[in-house]
Specification:
heterodimer, A: alpha/beta, Rossmann fold, 7 helices, about 60% helix, about 10% strand, globular, B: alpha+beta, YefM-like fold
């Protein structure tokens, strides 16, 4: 299975059936059948947003699917090489060089730094995001990006 | 992942099972097409996305409006706040 870094905007849309981008994510995932990168910051951000969405049956369905995916070894592929401290350092470095060029926020730079680290280690298929601003910074970081735009 | 033909699997079943027991994984090809995988029994076989996502994809078909992506909403709000300062 190809390994894809889907940022939290994309993974949320993948799991939540009524997210505005849900159709696009499902279509892309059905076509490529990827495994997704998973690490501590991404897990925290995704769980936080899905917890807040647990206010109706759709949110519950999304939460159950996430938990089922987390029980696998491959579909959400845990990355032991992504240590928070070192990724924060890498994001700081990338921000220092490029922060003023993009409207992307601090968490966006963290995702890019993590994806870049993995790409250097063993190659990533693509970076998926629903955020067009972030995608500009992803391209500059030398990663192949897929923007799921409405 | 090592490719083997269905003929090899038939002729060398014991040998391939021994190798699988030691951790090797095989893709079984028939007429050049991948038909099956042979993986060590100790290795758990993960469900594919359609199995994991069945309820999500079913729920998506139900009528009802879609909602804005909360992650994008948060990012935009943060950027807007930063520009105000």
């Amino acid at each position: 299975m190809p390994l894809v870094y889907a940022d939290t905007s994309a993974l949320f849309a993948f799991f939540h059936p009524k997210d505005a981008f849900s159709v696009l994510l499902t279509r892309a995932a059905r076509k490529l059948a990827p495994d997704f990168v998973y690490w501590s910051f991404l897990r925290y951000e995704l769980r936080h947003n899905l917890r807040q969405a647990r206010v109706d049956p759709y949110g519950e369905v999304a939460w159950s699917a996430l938990r089922a995916a987390e029980r696998t070894q491959a579909r959400l592929r845990w990355q032991p090489d992504l240590k928070c401290d070192s990724i924060l350092e890498a994001a700081e470095e990338f921000s220092g060089a490029r922060a003023r060029e993009f409207a992307a926020g601090s968490a966006d730079f963290l995702h890019i730094a993590a994806a870049r680290r993995l790409h250097h280690l063993f190659g990533l298929e693509e970076f998926w995001t629903c955020d067009e601003e972030q995608s500009k910074a992803v391209k500059v970081a030398g990663l192949k990006v897929r923007v799921l735009a409405l | 992942m090592t490719d083997v033909t269905s003929k090899m699997l038939h002729e060398k079943t014991g040998q391939l099972l021994d190798r699988a027991r030691q951790g090797e994984r095989f893709r079984v090809l028939r007429e050049g097409r991948a038909d099956a995988f042979l993986v060590p029994a100790a290795e758990s076989v993960d469900p594919e996305w359609p199995e994991i996502m069945a309820e999500v994809w079913q729920a998506r078909k139900k009528p009802g409006a879609t909602r804005p992506n909360p992650v994008l909403k948060e990012r935009k709000a943060r950027n807007y706040a930063a520009r105000l300062c």
